[in-house]
Amino acid sequence: MRASTADLDTAPNRQLLMATVAFATAFAIWGLLSGLAPLIRADLGLSASQTSLMIAIPVILGSLGRIPMGLLTDRLGGRLLFSVLLLVAAIPTFALAITDSFAGLLFWGFWLGLAGSSFAIGIGFVSRWFPPEKQGIALGVYGVGNIGQSVAVFGGPVLAVRIGVPATLAVFGLASVAWGLAFAIWARNAQRATPPLTLRESVRVFYTERLAWVLGLFYFLTFGGFVALGIYLPILLRDLFALTPEDAGARTAGFIVLATLSRPVGGWLSDRIGGQQVLALVFPGIALLAWPMTVASILPFTIGALGSAFLLGVGNGAVFKLVAVHFPLRVGTVTGLVGAAGGLGGFFPPIVLGVLTEITGSHTIGFVLLSAFALGCWAVLWQALLRVQPPPRAEAS
Q: CA-CA distance, 18 to 164, in Å (whole number)?
């Protein structure tokens, strides 16, 4: 039986919804240790540097895993990979529920990071369902799945106070299993207009396309900044302003929600004026807003954090519009590279902040470095995309 026009029109949106929920589920798993960190730190008596390492360790595998996941998505499609990923990611979640040592936290936290590699799968899966002129907004909507982290950092502590940390971890693990099965049953890969590139053709982008690495640098800031602040804010807010775990979690959730909801805005703007023009506004804005966060007063800190959240989300949407425009046949592969860079951008700052806080007794220098790095990204943007506009890649034809 031939599908109706209405069915064809709604299929992309249906698959976008499936992928967005899958991404939100995976991201909730990925951010779970961050949300529960204040409670776990109190239970195990962890130091600031140990806590920073615990919440940063899942970022390693989640970041580096995006490269093979992107390559595999271009070859095998997102339906299989997303389904398997969600089912496998539940294993370390259940293991953490019965872990009572710092070594165990680090070991299973590392494998928990597998959920973070889901981002590259979804970008490759979603982009093939939409034409180029709609990919910015579609990928921005998919990025709303970042809200899963706010569920972890806000809902995790609230739930843990009522049922305990182990039971909370188990609940999130069951959610991952449930949506993994749902994705396997109802998700569908888009039909390909061309055969998939060989592995060798896909990997060539790593050593022939400078722009792919440039976009990785931009995502190192926009997504790395989002992840770093998202996972470290619960600790930072408690240390600076003596907030309760629930209050710190709620404020961090607000940061994550704002950054998440602004991502489609970045995609929508990029569809209209170009991703490079959007980034030309984002980078100076972040450089300015980092400074209020150096003030140990909650009002300027909040203004800086929320303003940065909005711009980081807009920047995320702009970067992946540029990926889809310049690398249409290798979206998954380039997303893996760019996403890995962004994930690593979320790994190092929490550790650096923790160490610097122990050494200097202040978080100020971390935000000064954020401002300087944003200005450096603007300089690279000018050189690579604004001074001379590169045409879309020949593979787009």
A: 30
What ranges in the chain are assigned the alpha helix state H?
5-30, 32-44, 48-64, 66-76, 78-96, 102-112, 118-127, 132-142, 147-150, 156-163, 165-186, 199-203, 205-208, 210-241, 245-273, 275-289, 298-326, 331-360, 364-381
pLDDT score, position 177: 97
User: What is the mean pLDDT of the segment spanning 108-114?
Assistant: 92
- To the nearest 10°, the Cα dihedral for 209, 210, 211, 216? 110
Count structural domains, the chain: 1
Contact 108, 96 (CB under 8 A): yes
Closest CA to 86 of 188, 190, 174: 174
Amino acid identity of residue 378, one-letter, is: W
Domain extent for 332: 10-396
Judge whether 350 lies within some domain: yes
User: What are the backbone dihedrals phi and psi of residue 181, each rounded to the nearest 5 degrees, phi first?
Assistant: -70, -40
On whether residue 357 sits in a domain, the answer given is yes
DSSP state of 147: H
How far apart are the C-alpha atoms of 63 and 179, rounded to whole Å? 22
Asked if the structure places residue 2 within a domain, the reply is no
| Domain CATH for 301 | 1.20.1250.20
pLDDT at 201 over 70: no
- Name the nearest CA neighbour of 240 among 295, 285, 203: 295
CB-based contact 222:272 (threshold 8 Å): no
Instruction: State the CB neighbour count (10 A cutoff) for residue 388.
Output: 8
pLDDT at 396 over 60: no
169-186: average pLDDT: 96
Q: What is the CA radius of gyration of the chain?
A: 20
Residue 287 lies in a domain: yes
Cβ pair 166, 178 in contact under 8 A: no
Tokens 């290798």 found at: 330
The predicted structure's pLDDT at residue 200: 65
